[in-house]
Amino acid sequence: MPEADNRDELIEQLQTALDSRVIVEQAKGVLSEQGAVGVAKAFDTLRAYARRTQRLIDDVAADVVERRLIFSVLKRVR
Hints:
Helices cover 81% and strands 0% of the residues. By secondary structure, it is mostly helical. Helix 1 (2-35) crosses helix 3 (57-65) and helix 2 (39-52) crosses helix 3. The mean pLDDT is 88.
């Protein structure tokens, strides 16, 4: 049924967006702690790094949460 397919697709899209949001929020917390900065500055740092390295923000966030990237490295890359 087309309606059911659309609903399932929408549910999957919403779940993906929620999962992405959760990982970004976790990364903001990690960076905030590591850099002794507020969460707004942590997010700015995360976003700037993702843009400079041409990566998706949720991929960078996952690296932060998994401790493959740390605050000082994100700040250092130009």
